[in-house]
Design brief:
The protein is α+β, with helices and mostly antiparallel strands and about 325 residues long. It has one domain: Jelly Rolls (Sandwich), CATH 2.60.120. The chain contains 10 helices and 13 strands. A hairpin with a 6-residue loop joins strand 3 and strand 4 (about 105-110). Bound molecules: ligand 6CS and fe (iii) ion (FE). The site of fe (iii) ion has 3 residues, from loops.
């Protein structure tokens, strides 16, 4: 018997209908995606060729190479080290440490903590791609540096970012995407991003209620909003697992609902990436679809939201 928890309360609160309910049923469910993958249709204006757009539509991810020159990449690598070695950064709430080793795992809101990353996050070469795919002006929902240090970098278990951003941040529709810029080599040995091609077409409703202030543990190890084994098995049997490997400077762009994760890193070399999450202005987050309090601004921007650049400026 499917017990729907909290749905009645939401109706009472006049909340719009939740098209992607999760963490309210007693057993896992799957539903078809109810949003386009690519929200623009004017191919004349497309900043990417048709083959790449078709790949993205079908698989939910794509690679952008040679966007940044050697100096730009070197500058990002220097800034990444500087942040990691700055004691003041480690003591901030935006810094998430590894549960076991205490090494820095992630630094959130990194575009507000560092001018170089702020410039990259607003770079027109990235914004125009995000604007086209999302069919709207865009803003930064979240930015973070994931360090995944050598020897002891812990895993990120399978998940859909959208499932979390919908339930815990109130992101209404699947109209957001992540750009992961590789800052160190991402190879088969150091815990590269693993994606399940085509999984963005299905929304997996997860079992298990969200504890208050879940982010205090989920950013170290995600235990809630995690898909069930059978759903994962079905997706992997249908499409396999693709490791998103690449040399520094590659942009791994993926849809907000793509199922992804990454293994721990026991190799000596860190797998460090800059993650930029672009959300459509029309899709700004509101009240969480779960019952919990809003997450802090450094994880989910909701205060000062303004478009990064008009889509009418070429
Ligand atoms: O909760 C979040 O927003 C973060 N959690 C994961 C595992 N991926 C997206 C994001 O960094
Ligand atoms: Fe994620």
């Amino acid at each position: 018997m499917t017990k729907q928890v909290g749905l009645f309360n939401k109706e009472l609160l006049g909340r719009e209908k939740d098209d992607y309910p999760s963490r309210i049923y007693q057993e896992p469910k799957q539903c078809r995606r109810q949003d386009p993958v690519i929200h623009s249709h004017d191919h004349e204006k497309a900043p990417l060729d048709k083959a790449l757009l078709d790949h993205y539509e079908k698989n939910g991810f794509l690679f952008l190479d040679h966007l940044f020159d050697e100096d730009e990449i070197a500058q990002m690598q220097i800034q990444m080290q500087t942040l990691r070695d700055d004691k003041r950064i480690k003591d901030r709430e935006e810094s998430i440490t590894e549960a076991r080793s205490g090494d820095i795992r992630s630094v959130f809101d990194v575009h507000k903590l560092n001018n170089s990353f702020n410039k990259i996050a607003q770079d027109p070469r990235l914004i125009r791609v995000a604007e086209y795919l999302l069919g709207d002006q865009v803003y930064l929902h979240q930015t973070r540096l994931n360090y995944k240090p050598g020897f002891r970098g812990q895993e990120f278990y399978w998940h859909s970012d959208f499932e979390t951003w919908h339930v815990e941040d109130g992101m209404p529709r699947m109209r957001a995407l992540s750009m992961s810029i590789t800052l160190t080599p991402n190879d088969h040995n150091n815990g590269p991003l693993l994606v399940i091609p085509g999984s963005h077409h299905t929304f997996v409703s997860c079992v298990g209620e969200t504890p208050e202030e879940n982010y205090r543990s989920s950013l170290k190890k995600q235990n809630v909003g995690v898909p069930d084994d059978q759903s994962l098995q079905n997706m992997v049997e249908a499409a396999g697992i693709t490791p998103a490997i690449g040399q520094p400077g590659r942009v791994i762009l993926f849809d907000c609902n793509l199922m992804h994760g990454s293994n721990g890193n026991i190799s000596p070399s860190p797998r460090s990436n800059l993650f930029l999450v672009y959300n459509a202005i029309s899709n700004r987050i509101s009240r969480p679809f779960g019952q919990q309090r809003e997450r802090p601004e450094y994880i989910a921007a909701r205060g000062t939201i303004k478009p990064l650049k008009s889509i009418f400026c070429t």
